[in-house]
Specification:
The chain is mainly alpha-helical and 114 residues long. It is 71% helix and 4% strand. The protein has 3 helices and 2 strands; from the N terminus they run ααββα. Strands 1-2 form a two-stranded antiparallel ribbon. The N and C termini lie far apart (89 Å). The relative contact order is 0.04.
Length: 114
């Protein structure tokens, strides 16, 4: 008698457990739930991309400062955008070489080939 009652209770408990698991999985697969999961993952991916971009920007700034120090470049206070400028003699040499470069008066338009 106790054996039958034990197995009956065990079977009922297993049935309730299985039904609960199946209902949870069905709720996870509804369109609304899938859309919410996709939105959450998109937001997480956006945060990761933003963090990556900030890390890259910080690294670029640090490396640019290192290169400016190594090359002896200084900030030009006369320029409104605070662009780095070459020191005097190197700047004049760069400007002279810039004028010597042959520039074609024709430009290539990629759209002309189509």
């Amino acid at each position: 008698m106790f054996r039958r009652a034990f197995w009956f209770t065990a079977g009922a408990a297993a049935g309730v457990w299985a039904t609960t698991k199946v209902n949870r999985q069905i709720k996870k697969l509804t369109p609304e739930s899938l859309a919410a999961q996709a939105a959450d993952r998109a937001v997480e991916a956006g945060h990761r991309i933003k963090d990556f971009a900030l890390d890259v920007k910080a690294g670029m700034t640090r490396r640019e400062d290192e290169l400016n120090d190594a090359l002896g470049l200084t900030q030009d206070p006369d320029r409104p955008d605070n662009v780095t400028a070459l020191p005097g003699p190197r700047r004049l040499h760069a400007l002279e070489n810039d004028q010597d470069i042959h520039r074609s008066k024709f430009s290539y338009n990629r759209n002309e080939d189509h």
